[in-house]
Every structure is written in C-alpha cells, then in structure tokens.
C-alpha cells in the first residue's frame, strides 16, 4: 500500500514519522502516487479540505482507499471534517480521526488499521 500526506503545522508529519511510513509528501498537489494509497491529511480552516489535497486528489483520487485525518477538537463541529468530506466525495472510509499529532494510543490504533487495509 502507498501512503500520501499533507501537513501544514507538522502534526500529520509527526504521525507519519511515528508510524515509520515511507509516504509521499503533498506539498503543491502536483505529486503523484502509483497505485492504491491511504491519505493522511489535516483539516483546514473550519472543516475544509486543504487546497493542495484537493489538487492532489483530482489527479490521484481514483486510487484512494481510505483517509486518516487530523484536527483540533477546539473547532467543534469542524473537527476532522476534511476527512468526512473526502470520504464522501471519493466513496471511501474515513479510517481514523486524530487530535493534532495524536497520543501513543492513537498511533497504535492507526497502525492496527493499516495492517488490515
């Protein structure tokens, strides 16, 4: 399985590093992934999908198999909404929602999910 991620503040990048994944960093959205992949992303603004992720998915979305999303519960209903929006648009599952960079229990839970995807 391939992995791709977008990280603005470093939280998602920290998750990728803690999981020890070799993943494509989505910086401009022009990046590509060959074959099926899991997307790790943050939530922008008040529940928005980051612009670079939208651009990336336009070209690569057909291979998307699931999304893991980071957010901040301080934003209330907007918490991790980017993952819900992507999941609905691309008909995939939002596999996990994590607060910021997560806790060790989150990393363990995500690792188990990835083993079964």
From TrEMBL:
Pfam families in the cross-refs: Flavodoxin_NdrI
Classification via Gene3D superfamilies: 3.40.50.360
SUPFAM superfamilies found in the cross-reference section: Flavoproteins
InterPro entries documented for this protein: Flavoprotein-like_sf (IPR029039), RNR_NrdI (IPR004465)
Name recorded for this polypeptide: Class Ib ribonucleoside-diphosphate reductase assembly flavoprotein NrdI
Species assigned in the record: Faecalicoccus acidiformans
Name of the encoding gene: nrdI
């Amino acid at each position: 399985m391939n992995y791709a991620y977008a990280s603005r503040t470093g939280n998602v990048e920290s998750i990728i590093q803690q999981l020890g994944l070799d993943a494509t960093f989505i910086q401009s959205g022009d990046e590509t992934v060959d074959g099926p992949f899991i997307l790790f992303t943050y939530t922008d603004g008040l529940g928005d999908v980051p612009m670079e992720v939208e651009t990336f998915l336009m070209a690569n979305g057909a291979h998307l198999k699931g999304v893991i999303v980071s957010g901040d519960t301080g934003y209330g209903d907007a918490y991790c909404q980017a993952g819900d929006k992507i999941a609905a648009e691309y008909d995939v599952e939002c596999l996990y929602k994590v607060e910021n960079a997560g806790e060790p229990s989150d990393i363990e839970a995500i690792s188990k999910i990835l083993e079964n995807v």
